[in-house]
Amino acid sequence: MSNRSTLRNRFSVLLAIIGVLVVSALLFAACAQKPAAAPAAAAPTRAPTEAATPTEATTTSMTSTTETTSTTSSTMPMTETEAMTTSTVMTSTEMTSTTGMTESGEGMAPAVMLYEDAKLGKILVDGKGMVLYIFDKDVMDKSNCTGDCLKNWPPLTASDEAVKPTAGDGVTAELGVIKRDDGTYQVTINGMPAYYYAKDTKADESSGQGVGDVWWVVGADGAKITTQ
Fold first, then answer.
1. Domain extents for the chain?
2. Which of 38, 61, 197, 228 is least surrounded by Cβ atoms within 10 Å, i.e. has the fewest?
3. pLDDT 10s digits, 102-160
């Protein structure tokens, strides 16, 4: 009897073990057959966008910008040196205009030439052809045209008394230089101060002839011509 109980107990234990193994095998099989969770879908990769070809409007805008930049560059303020240079040139031009139609300059000798006018005959002009005049109210080597008079009758000037005016072909008058009361130097024709007329705007024009019956053009020999 004892042996049978022992065998029965062992058989029960064996069955129990077998049962556990079977259950474990079934559970394992069930887990193995369960599909694995699908991996999360990757975010769709966005294809790189192809760079847009510049449209006509874009090209026009770029061109306009370039032109604007170019314009801005060309209108940049002048440097101090450039401004000074420009100012110097302008000042030089303005001074020439203000002092009248003068032939003189630093160390330059004013020229007195002969011009044959259809009405007045051979008369004296400067190196640029501007007609010269003398004033009846002047005296030898002395100018009496001052103040407002000089606005209409600017003198033919020289840089100083040492500069001798040059005489052109056919000019027989004696040319000289005097010092005016204002400290400037004026060319003389036979001792009489020589002037321009402000209303003569071009060479060979002689609209000052006979003005006030005291202003006259001058002949080759320095004598006044009173033909009108």
1. 111-225
2. 38
3. 444 445 789 999 999 999 999 999 999 999 999 999 999 999 999 999 999 999 999 99
